[in-house]
Amino acid sequence: MNAIIELWNTIVELFAYDFFKKAFLAAVFASISCGIIGSYIVSKRIVFISGGITHASFGGIGLAFLLGFNPLLGAVIFAVLSALGIQFFTKVAEIREDSSIAIWWSLGMALGIIFIFLTPGYTPNLMSYLFGNILTVTNSELWWMFALNIVIIAFFILLFRKILYIAFDEEFARAAGLRVSLFNYLTITLIALTVVLNIRVVGIILILSLLTIPQATANLFTNDFKKLLILSSVFAFIGTISGLFISYFLNIPSGAAIIFTLVTIFGILRLLKYFL
Amino acid sequence: MEPLIKIQNLTVGYDKLPVLKKVNFEIFEKDFIGVIGPNGGGKTTLLKAVLGLLNPVEGKIEFRKDINGRKKSIGYLPQVRHIDRKFPITVFDVVRSGSLMHSQTKIGGGDLRQKVEELLSEMGISNIRNKAIGELSGGQMQRVFLCRALLSDPKILILDEPDTFVDNRFEGELYEKLRFLNQEVAIILVSHDLGTISSYVKTIACVNGNLHYHQSNSITQDQLDGYNCPIQIITHGEIPHTVLKHHH
Question: CATH number for the domain including B166?
Answer without folding.
Answer: 3.40.50.300
